[in-house]
Amino acid sequence: xxxxxxxxxxxxxxxxxxxxxxxxxxxxxxxxxxxxxxxxxxxxxxxxxxxxxxxxxxxxxxxxxxxxxxxxxxxxxxxxxxxxxxxxxxxxxxxxxxxxxxxxxxxxxxxxxxxxxxxxxxxxxxxxxxxxxxxxxxxxxxxxxxxxxxxxxxxxxxxxx
Amino acid sequence: xxxxxxxxxxxxxxxxxxxxxxxxxxxxxxxxxxxxxxxxxxxxxxxxxxxxxxxxxxxxxxxxxxxxxxxxxxxxxxxxxxxxxxxxxxxxxxxxxxxxxxxxxxxxxxxxxxxxxxxxxxxxxxxxxxxxxxxxxxxxxxxxxxxxxxxxxxxxxxxxxxxxxxxxxxxxxxxxxxxxxxxxxxxxxxxxxxxxxxxxxxxxxxxxxxxxxxxxxxxxxxxxxxxxxxxxxxxxxxxxxxxxxxxxxxxxxxxxxxxxxxxxxxxxxxxxxxxxxxxxxxxxxxxxxxxxxxxxxxxxxxxxxxxxxxxxxxxxxxxxxxxxxxxxxxxxxxxxxxxxxxxxxxxxxxxxxxxxxxxxxxxxxxxxxxxxxxxxxxxxxxxxxxxxxxxxxxxxxxxxxxxxxxxxxxxxxxxxxxxxxxxxxxxxxxxxxxxxxxxxxxxxxxxxxxxxxxxxxxxxxxxxxxxxxxxxxxxxxxxxxxxxxxxxxxxxxxxxxxxxxxxxxxxxxxxxxxxxxxxxxxxxxxxxxxxxxxxxxxxxxxxxxxxxxxxxxxxxxxxxxxxxxxxxxxxxxxxxxxxxxxxxxxxxxxxxxxxxxxxxxxxxxxxxxxxxxxxxxxxxxxxxxxxxxxxxxxxxxxxxxxxxxxxxxxxxxxxxxxxxxxxxxxxxxxxxxxxxxxxxxxxxx
Lengths: 161, 685
Ligand code: FES
Ligand code: FES
Known about the structure:
- The complex is a heterodimer of chains A (161) and B (685).
- Chain A has 161 residues and is α+β, with helices and mostly antiparallel strands.
- Chain A has five helices and five strands, in the order ββαβββαααα.
- A five-stranded mixed β-sheet of chain A has the order 2-1-5-3-4, sandwiched between helices.
- Chain B has 685 residues and is of the alpha/beta class.
- Chain B contains 17 helices and 28 strands.
- In chain B, the strands form seven sheets. A seven-stranded mixed β-sheet of chain B has the order 11-12-9-18-15-16-17. Chain B has a five-stranded mixed β-sheet with strand order 4-3-2-1-8, with helices on both faces.
- The radius of gyration of chain B is 27 Å and the shape is flat.
């Protein structure tokens, strides 16, 4: 069976040895100890497992690790340089856009991808864009607020969030 | 844990304040180093370096107890929030605690930690007064420093070299709510940074050296027994070990625990698929379609109705904590067991484990990292027991994480229920009589808060076809749904506005206040009737807090969309307004699921709604505009807020549907497949 021995994760080349048909979710969590990537359903329904692959959001539970060899993978652990926060992470803290936090890493990465393609989204666009993400604690209105906050700040600074 | 053990653990040169329970508080007087009661509910420790650590058996599951309890300590200790650390839910480090449930943390633990912190502060003043030979009255404590004149010392400087312990003096004065500086204000979620960076390790994330992954073989239906097992193919997979053990405690999936263990999850999964099992199914397993008749049939008490009653049904629903149950268990060479798991009852899980293995509780150490939510659904140690049994058999640490399907099948559910209720109204619009029978949901908030001379209210125990347990607000949701639906019917029958009808029959001022607040913000009096629009309201009280909910819905074809929800909530003095608003909004969001579409579907002993694709939970697109109105009663003790805000959602929406369509829907969920009969839509009155 084909094997994957190298992945580019969070800007570093990581060595491993995994069947190429394993899920990216399991490889990141179990082989690379990147447990910020969360499992919620394993069937593409909750998006807790979202990571960025070449900048696009991907549900890692549905992604075979063999398909992402050579691509740039970003997990929540690598979204911002150590000891710093990405503006979207800051906005989530400021808007208190979480309770238990299990959905938060996937939600933040989903939001980062959304803002990259739509820098100034309306509430409705945020709701549509992130409708694949479940927050069982129901912090949806705060998540919308956090994303708008991040977008507003980025617009002020003239940069992408 | 005794005081001696505690000192041994945290080291010397410390101040320790113990909070005795009410009884021992009366026994222990003032003074330092007197005999300490062994039973305590929280520890507060100031280390030599001045850092403050609070120990409590409560757990954090998203309800922000970690933040509110930190604020409690900071408030009374006059120290920065950042200087305080909370150790929670660790059976070896924290005092015994019954569990984090029933909205109990704020009314019980919160004042105790304030008392502990206040006592510590007074003790620091005593120490400074002795050391500097100054009058206590000249000493102040602020920003984590003790000062008198131009002298100043950090907490650690004063406690240096000492080993002090003190119980809470009886009658210790706490800072009144209107003088709070840290409490009662928003603060950033404590530990929030670890969450947004992915650094926080939940129980599901724990990894231990040499750990094996466990995949467990579950029966295909409830009650099925394992008749034969062929594990040869599974065991042929390199690294795999198949374990078959008996569980002695209660286990929903039966006493036979069969699992495939491997050093990597992929091999364990492959091995599980390669197990060949034969099962003997159990006959006569229930199905959701006949469940309510079953509840009525198995009732342990009979009702002889006095009034005309309408039947209401409430479906079983699932908690769906986004972090499923999970545990890592590790045995030491000397027979001690360590378990990491997500649970609302760390000490309850410890007891379960001790009983399972027949070992003393002291040999079991349960750690509950801040958990990916519970909503009442994580009281038992199912995953912990499985992990511990497997770890013992394997002689290695074992990780046992439940899948979503296992979580949706083998966890327990919010009870389904049948309620029969009705009332009679006098010509002047006051309630004449009231009758209410609840089968199986539970007795929470069963009693009407409305004034009525003649009433019959009864909870009937029944058998439950499914494993059931607590859920956010317990039966208060079912009971409020029915009561407030019936009240709405009575109001319409008497041609009185639903708000006015409630005021007419309500003495409780706190409840009247939230109703007034919600109706005002919502614009109840000036609501604009339009085709396809409906407005409903509901009110109630549970666990010492008060709620009123107004909902606006839109009906489009058969689809019901909740457009706007205004919820007024009062739970005494507000501990943290931002986190309270978050709880209220979250309860509304979650409540919409149970109101509109959530239900557990089962047939012949199988859960059919066993995946998120088959069990719908609320999403962004389901969200209305949610507005919370928080009434701050600084003159009243703070009550919990994690539960009650959910109870008004379903009835307010049900009443709004009636307003829009003239259809009285008497079942939860209200519209799992859209509105039942479109033709019944009526023009607005
Ligand atoms: S775990 Fe991947 S979508 Fe739910
Ligand atoms: S914060 Fe708990 S699931 Fe979103």
